[in-house]
Design brief:
Radius of gyration: 50 Å
Number of strands: 24
Helix content: 25-40%
Strand order of the largest sheet: 2-4-3-1-5-6-7
Largest sheet: 7 strands, mixed
Mean pLDDT: 80
Low-confidence stretches: 1-6, 98-104, 249-253
Length: 535
């Protein structure tokens, strides 16, 4: 049984990594509009796959088109939300889910300083670092490393201070930097009364999770900016409560710690569910995954017109590249792949036939990607018949104590059929070589069936189904032959051979060798006298 796919350790690791990334994206995007739209896109994809599996071509195209347009709409409409997700989350927080540090932060001191500055119409820009590091998102500034005191903040933002136009960075429970410059937002739809401080606060909140406090110099308004959201603050208690909520003070951390175990179990369950879903999708995808394989296919010719026969072809087999689902490709038997060419309209002479996918016999579900060579040259000729003589090809010496006497063939002539140029050049056909030494002689005769040797596969023997003739060879003992056969004497001359001597006297060279007791391969010498039988 063929198994289309197996879950190897690399596949398991692949599924685990994708499951973890998708789970982290879910935790990061949940509760946002972009996440809801993403869920809608997933359902569109499921509908499209279901329609495709059911064979609903038009419906499948419809959902596929809607999905493509929806992706563009998601990128255009929710570009700011996607930018927040991609930019403000650093890799460590995304992969490890770094928890917020519990710390005592003087939020009441920040609120006190902000409202003092507001009452005096002194502009201020206070950045409170949250989870994301600020060092890569701000520039400039002087290191302060001072205690978080309202008097210090008031002195920094005083109009006489040379660094009052910059921002103050609060890290932990200390004032870390002053006179720092923040990136400005490129948003064009902000209210007209938002000045440079507001644009700087919104710009920083677009790329990190810092909380930025803005005190307007013209109106004395206090605004709290977080995640591009601008909130108006009216009294110190409200500001302190909002900072406690956004920056997670010790009390909030304790509340989270009490729920930590349950949250951990929930996240583990969510990761397991994501792993199962990704594994299911991987299994479906692997079952549908396409692969390629190359096989050798023999070429068969059909519908050859009467009176014509193939003389030769440029190729007897072709290489076929087959594609299909991995399960089908892996279960393919190469011997089942064949190529067929129809010769129904072919004419005499040399012609080139193109091979196409419909000429290849394949299992359902598989497709032909390439055929090499893509064409075959065949040469056709008219069929010709003629009768030719059959010759027994006798080799080696006869059995010990015997000499060959005569040979009979049944039939001694056969009809051959094939291309005219081949048939016209054939005057006789030999049998396969017959080793006389291996024959068993009974009553002075040995008989056997010998196949005929055809030089070309295009030649046929229409009257011989098995392509064999019966060969009967008469033998006599050497003494009998010497007594009964009339002989003459021949003196060997220089340059004579047994073949030439036998040709001159009309007898076989083998007969002369046996009559004179010559061994195979033994040379004759000038002046040697040989007995020649008289026919």
């Amino acid at each position: 049984m063929n198994i289309p796919f197996l879950l190897e350790w690399k596949n398991f690791l692949d599924i685990l990594v994708i499951s973890f990334i998708l789970h982290r994206l879910f935790l990061l995007m949940r509760g946002t509009v972009a996440f809801q739209v993403s869920i809608g896109l997933v359902f569109l994809w499921l509908f499209q796959e279901a329609a495709n599996a059911a064979g609903l071509v038009l419906t499948s195209w419809f959902f596929r088109g809607i999905g493509a347009v929806a992706v563009l709409v998601l990128v255009v409409v929710f570009r700011n939300e996607l930018r927040e997700i991609l930019v403000h989350t650093n890799p460590i927080r995304f992969l490890l889910g770094r928890s917020r540090q519990t710390r005592e932060v003087g939020h009441h001191l920040i609120a006190q300083a902000a409202f003092r500055l507001s009452n005096c119409r002194v502009g201020a820009l206070i950045v409170i670092e949250n989870q994301d590091e600020l060092r890569g998102n701000v520039r400039g500034g002087l290191p302060i490393d001072s205690n978080l005191l309202p008097e210090v903040l008031e002195s920094i933002f005083a109009k006489e201070s040379p660094i009052h136009d910059g921002a103050v960075i609060i890290r932990g429970n200390r004032i870390d930097q002053a006179g720092t410059y923040l990136p400005l937002t490129e948003e064009e739809t902000l209210p007209l009364h938002f000045g440079t401080r507001h644009r700087a606060a919104i710009g920083l909140s677009e790329i990190c999770d810092a909380v930025v406090l803005v005190v307007s110099e013209e109106r004395g308004d206090i605004s709290l900016v977080h995640r591009r959201n601008v909130e108006r603050i009216h009294h110190p208690d409200q500001l302190e409560q909002r900072l406690d909520f956004l920056l997670m003070t010790r009390d909030a951390a304790k509340a989270k710690e009490r729920k930590g175990r349950g949250a951990l179990m929930t996240q583990a369950g969510g990761l397991l569910l994501t792993f199962v879903l990704v594994s299911t999708f991987w299994g479906l995808y692997t079952g549908r995954e396409f692969s390629l394989i190359s096989v050798k296919a023999p070429v068969y010719y059909r519908d050859i017109p009467d009176g014509l026969q193939m003389k030769k072809a440029s190729a007897e087999e072709v290489e076929v590249q087959v594609s299909g689902r991995r399960g089908l490709v892996s279960s393919l038997d190469p011997q089942q792949v064949r190529a067929f060419l129809s010769l129904g309209r072919i004419q005499e002479g040399e012609q080139v036939l193109m091979l196409k996918s419909e000429n290849i016999l394949l299992s359902p579900g598989l497709e032909v990607e390439r055929i090499t060579p893509s064409s075959i040259t065949v040469e056709m000729e008219h069929i010709h018949e003629r009768t030719v003589k059959v010759i027994a090809d006798l080799t080696g010496p006869p059995p010990d104590g015997f000499a060959s006497d005569s040979v009979r063939l049944k039939p001694d002539a056969v009809k051959i059929r094939g291309p005219a140029t081949l048939v016209e050049g054939i005057t006789s056909i030999k049998t396969r070589p017959i080793d006389l030494k291996s024959l068993r002689v009974r009553d002075g005769e040995a008989s056997l069936d010998a196949s005929l040797l055809i030089e070309s596969p295009s030649i046929e023997l229409p009257d011989l189904a098995r392509g064999e003739v019966q060969v009967s060879i008469r033998f006599r003992t050497v003494e009998e032959k010497r007594e009964k056969i009339a002989v003459r004497t021949h003196t060997v001359r220089k340059g004579d051979t047994l073949y030439e001597i036998g040709k001159d006297y009309g007898v076989r060279a083998e007969t002369i060798r046996n009559l004179n007791g010559l061994k195979p391969g033994e040379y004759i010498q000038p002046g040697q006298e040989l007995k020649i039988p008289i026919p």
